[in-house]
């Protein structure tokens, strides 16, 4: 049986669940930098506003479960360049 902590996104089989991580700001910034996007362009890619990305990166707010799924999908799209962040911030669902 999988136990997912409160606030973790509920995922379908074979997906990863967010590991409780106090520093999601580092994840957001690292992903944005790896994609080579400005905060404005990264915000547009995720369908949020620039101030939202800014708050995430500065630790004043955390991404919603839906935004975390989009972040996970972007990491998967990076292939090998995103594997280390996937391992650090997400875990395999069994």
Tag the structure with descriptive keywords.
94 residues; mainly alpha; 434 Repressor (Amino-terminal Domain); two-stranded antiparallel ribbon; 5 helices; 2 strands; 54% helix; disordered N terminus
What do you see in this structure?
The chain is mainly α and 94 residues long. It has one domain: lambda repressor-like DNA-binding domains (434 Repressor (Amino-terminal Domain)). The protein is 54% helix and 6% strand. It has five helices and two strands. Strands 1-2 form a two-stranded antiparallel ribbon. Helix 1 packs across helix 3, helix 1 packs antiparallel against helix 5 and helix 4 packs antiparallel against helix 5. The radius of gyration is 13 Å and the shape is globular. The termini are close together. The N terminus is likely disordered.
Q: List the domain count as a whole number.
A: 1
Strand content: 5-15%
**SS-derived structural category:** mainly alpha
In total, the number of strands is 2
- Strand neighbour order, sheet with most strands: 1-2
Largest sheet: 2 strands, antiparallel
Helix-strand pattern: EHHHHHE
The level of helicity is: 40-55%
Give the overall pLDDT as a whole number.
Answer: 82
Number of helices: 5
Reported CATH architecture? Orthogonal Bundle
Predict the CATH topology: 434 Repressor (Amino-terminal Domain)
Instruction: Note the gap between the termini.
Output: 8 Å
| CATH superfamily caption | lambda repressor-like DNA-binding domains
Radius of gyration: 13 Å
Shape: globular
Low-confidence segments, given as residue ranges, are 1-13
- In the CATH scheme, the class would be Mainly Alpha
